[in-house]
Amino acid sequence: MALMYSETDVWRLADDWGPEKVVLAYDPDTGMRGVLVIDNTAMGPGKGGIRFTEYVTPVEVFRLARTMTWKCALAGLPFGGAKSGLLGDPSKVDRVAWMRSFAKTIKPYTPLQYIAATDMGTTELDMAVFAHEVGDMRSCTGKPRELGGIPHELGTTGYGVAIATDLTVKMLSDMGALGLDPSEVRVSIQGFGNVGSFTAKFLDEMGYKIVSVCDISACIYDPDGLDIPNIMRELGSSLHISKLKKYAKMPKEKIFELDADIFIPAASSDTINDETAPKLLPHTKVVVEAANIPTTSSGEQILMKGGVWIIPDIIANAGGVIGSYVEYKGGTEMEAFDLIRYKISTNIKMILTEADQIRKPPRTVALDIAAARVRRAMLLRRGAIDVAREYFAQRKLYYDSMLSMRDPSHTEDR
Predict the structure, then answer these.
(1) Is 386 within a domain?
(2) Over 65-93, what HEC string results?
(3) Over the stretch 365-385, which tens digit does the pLDDT of each residue have?
(4) CB count, 10 Å around CB of 169?
(5) Predicted TM-score of the model (pTM)
(6) With CB atoms 3.0 to 4.6 Å apart as the test, which of 45, 73, 289, 342 could cross-link to 370 if both were Cys?
(7) What are the strands of the beta sheet with 186-190, ordered from one edge?
(8) What distance in Å separates the CA atoms of residue 68 and residue 66, rounded to the nearest whole number?
(9) How many whole angstroms separate alpha carbon 309 and alpha carbon 105?
(10) What is the per-residue DSSP string for 140-177?
């Protein structure tokens, strides 16, 4: 698959924050094509999943890495931002050989500068392959339980999105900004993979009415609420929504037009744009970003002008990386879910309160806080380097003077 220059030219997007490293990988034996972008490591090793799709580009990977920089900073984790991608269809290639080849290529950078995880197209089994090839279990998170992992298949990201949605509804209702009884709120979820399905599961358990969901194959809708537990049982881990027996099917694009108060994009990037954002305006009051970068800048402007509240990805879908941190430090699944609830609830309260007080969008408030934290870490790192330089300069002067004293030419005649 040929790539346009604009899709590979990451450096045109470089700024004071990063990226620090861009590694393009190719293996002629397997056909593996991959990219690693380490954006910023001021707060710790770059954290970010491995996306495995047939349309991923280096520029997309950079944008995702930058999102991870802000997300980790906002969550208060000792991680920087990074991301990687494999350019291929995981169902049509030898994914084990590709993952091993990619792991071997980027081994010099992990885990000190980059810690991988699952993402679109990758699973806990891919993480097992990656960790074994690198030879270090700290090189990635989202591993199987047998390897000490907390698999993302447990729904950590979706759980965080559900917590963010629930608290947002309650806070906006208390502020008088929503005009809805929380018990009557209707939710649409675009995307029914790991993130979307678990978001639906947890919101359903909280009592929310999920009225429409879609995946790549179809969209279904029921104004009285979908039977989420039955849908998840019927779909299992392999079937698409188009295979469901009970519901009438519509094209997946119809999801934007269906009546719901909360819209949760949980699919790929840039799905809310100039074309789709106007379709949400008549009915949508809140967008909670479960996917990474699901809303374009122009799409966001359209929604904000229409009075829609947007809870950005760097807050709402941080459950996955928070769970990854618990795995990284050797914690348990229960500890992961407890920390996700605590950190996302804390950030939602902080961001929405400040956004309401200073009349700025939640994304602007969140980015300002995250950028301030990363900037401080960068200054501390720069300061530490200067201190280290001064220390070693002083030590060099000391040793030079000691050597000088030992030089016979400087000793007195006895």
Answers:
(1) no
(2) HHHHHHHHHHCCCCCEEEEEEEECCCCCC
(3) 999 999 999 999 998 888 877
(4) 25
(5) 0.90
(6) 73
(7) 219-221, 209-214, 186-190, 262-265, 286-288, 309-311
(8) 5
(9) 43
(10) BSS--GGGT---GGG-HHHHHHHHHHHHHHHHHHHHTS
- Distances from the Cα of 315 to the Cαs of 23, 32, 74, 88, 354, in angstroms? 28, 33, 7, 30, 14
CATH code of the domain in which 341 resides: 3.40.50.720
For residue 41, pLDDT beyond 90: yes
pLDDT digits 0-9 by tens, 352-368: 999 999 999 999 999 99
For residue 112 the two structure tokens come to 């000190």
Sign of CA dihedral 82, 88, 89, 95: negative
Question: What is the Cα–Cα distance from 250 to 273, expressed in whole angstroms?
Answer: 21
- Say which of 83, 143, 209, 285 is annotated catalytic: 83
Tokens of 179: 């005009």
The Cα 264–Cα 255 span in angstroms is 10
Give the CATH number for residue 115: 3.40.50.10860
- Would you say residue 361 lies in a domain? yes
Question: 59 is in which domain, residue-wise?
Answer: 5-69+79-149
83 is catalytic: yes
How many Å apart are CA 136 and CA 147, to the nearest integer? 11
